[in-house]
Design a protein that fits this description.
CATH topology of the largest domain: Jelly Rolls
Strand content: 25-35%
Distance between the termini: 100 Å
CATH architecture of the largest domain: Sandwich
Oligomer: single chain
Structural class: alpha+beta
Number of helices: 7
CATH class of the largest domain: Mainly Beta
């Protein structure tokens, strides 16, 4: 029967394809089948090789995790792994942060700064429409507000070639302040983005300043793929650069990075990924009085995004506020969006408060959580309660403060300290208060 089918198949090919030999008619379909089979085998081989490499990479990753877990000299964590794996990993060299993973508060013990009780500037671009250039900024290039799939909120995409992006208003920086922002470097990010703080020249005041060294004097802070660089400058005839650089804990591309810069007179400290990445004791000219800032990029094909830019005073007198005045407002204890999880960079503020409470064992406090007016009233009230409870829990479990000395209360949006009409004012209303009992 098979022979009959074969003869019929050959006869059919002879009718359909006259003028061709039977050999050609039969061999070509075989070649097609052979080629398809070869392609399938190659695809399977490639899949197997990829799977093999993935397993090798996974094995190497596990090996490094075990090695890092053996060291207890340095503090840190891998935020992109499971909680059990993160407990095993320590050290400053950590993989990229994974969005949504929970940070461990105790891993940030080198965060010795404490944000002050006054917000000087805040912009989360919430007032700007998606696709627009932010209203309070100007540039010699292009940019737009976007959302991203790896982080909440709105992001300012500085996507113009060699662009300079200036905040259009002045800010009265004190001698001691902290500037924070989130940045997502793109895949092509290399030399990096530069934040420039400067003192404007009143004789040549400009809303848009694209000078290489703007103003009378200032400081460049370059956020590079392989580290950090600061350059204090002065535009007087005898001015020279004051350089500082470090390669510790650079930003991770295609991931949100939270950068914190503490300026204390002439001293410059940069914090990232749970450690102090750079400390320059005299990185700024003594006569400089900052009042303007801008961002600029020098990677021709790199366009990072920034969000949640905040400037606060630094080093509040916690003892005087809490013990003498009886009320301490802190913006140094922060939380994940719409959650009661305390962010790891809150360590400094909590440690400062715990120190005062330990030195004054007779003092009891009430911890009050506050929110802005965005969202549902009842949900805000519940959120503020849970956040106050989280603060109490951290102070008790991580810092050894007797839980009986602390009460908690949630005020929600009911006691604002500013109108809920601008990003700055909303940021002022999102706070934690400690009230002496």
């Amino acid at each position: 029967m098979k022979i009959l089918y074969f003869i019929a198949f050959v006869a059919m090919l002879s009718v359909i394809l006259p003028g061709q030999t039977i050999d050609a008619q039969i061999v070509k379909p075989k070649e097609v089948v052979r080629e398809q089979g070869t392609n399938r085998i190659n695809n399977k081989i490639e899949e197997g090789v990829d799977e093999g490499f993935n397993k090798i990479e996974e094995g190497i990753g596990n090996l490094f995790k075990k090695k890092k877990g053996q060291s207890t000299d340095e503090e840190g964590e891998d935020e992109g792994n499971s909680p059990a794996e993160r407990d095993e990993m320590e050290g400053d060299e950590r993989p990229a942060t994974a969005t949504g993973s929970k940070q461990k508060l105790e891993s940030y013990t080198q965060y010795d700064f404490v944000p002050g009780d006054k917000i000087l500037f805040f912009d989360d671009f919430s007032q700007d429409a998606i696709g627009d250039f932010p209203a309070l900024w100007t540039s010699n290039s292009s940019g737009e507000i976007k959302t991203v799939n790896i982080a909440p909120g709105k992001w300012f995409h500085m996507n113009g070639e060699d662009g300079v992006y200036c905040y259009t208003k002045t800010v009265n920086f004190p001698d001691n302040f902290i500037i924070e922002f989130d940045i997502i470097p793109d895949a092509e990010y290399s030399y990096g983005m530069r934040l420039t703080l400067y003192e404007e020249d009143p004789e040549n005041a400009r809303e848009m300043n694209d000078d290489l060294f703007p103003g009378k004097s200032g400081m460049h802070i370059t956020v590079k793929k392989d580290g950090w660089e600061t350059k204090g400058y002065s535009n007087n005839p005898n001015g020279e650069w004051i350089n500082g650089q470090a390669s510790k804990n650079p930003v991770v591309t295609e991931q949100p990075n939270h950068v914190i810069i503490w300026i204390q007179k002439r001293r410059v400290r940069i914090y990232h990924q749970g450690v102090k990445a750079l400390d320059v004791p005299t990185g700024i000219y003594a006569h400089t009085r900052f009042n303007r800032f801008l961002f600029s990029g020098y990677d021709t094909y790199s366009w990072p995004m920034i969000a949640n830019l905040k400037i606060t005073t630094a080093a509040p007198d916690t003892r005087s506020k809490l013990i003498t005045e009886g009320r301490l407002i802190t913006y140094g204890i922060t939380f994940d969006v719409n959650k009661a999880d305390i962010k790891a960079e809150s360590y400094g503020a909590l440690n400062d408060i715990a120190t005062v409470l330990k030195e004054n064992p007779a003092v009891n406090v009430k911890i009050v959580g506050h929110t802005d007016s965005d969202g549902d009233d009842a949900l805000n009230l519940d959120l503020s309660r849970r956040r106050a409870e989280s603060v109490k829990s951290e102070l008790a479990s991580k810092f050894g403060i007797d839980a009986s000395r602390m009460q908690t209360e949630g005020a929600g949006e009911n006691n604002p300290v500013a109108p809920n009409d601008t990003p700055v004012n909303k940021a002022m209303n999102r706070r934690v208060e400690f009230v002496k009992l």
